[in-house]
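Quick one: structure for this chain?
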Amino acid sequence: MPEEPEVVQVTDRNGVKLVRILTSAILREGEVEALGQGLLSLAEVPGQRVVLSFLGVQHLTSLVLGKLIHVHKRLAESGGELRLADIDPHIFEVFAITHLDRLFRIFEREDEAIASFAAKPEA
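Got it. Here's what it folds into:
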């Protein structure tokens, strides 16, 4: 059985882990699991700040939403945060319909999401 290709690339930008999805579609179970494991491994570091960029992603299965909710919870439990960026308008509709746009902080661009960690919270 062929090995699943890499689904994510993780880099460090100003102390924030930037996770880029390396495929235009996350539809197969192996891809969903690889995405989930890549993100969950980051949640093991207390206080980890993570930006997940969907740049170029055109299709995803609803299983991805479940993984994102789980990762969001695990990061919050360890004092970390997950932010999303670069979501295609058609995929964003799914986030809006499911009200996940209220759970996640979503930004138009990854640079904005990264910069938001440095912004002071409003009083």
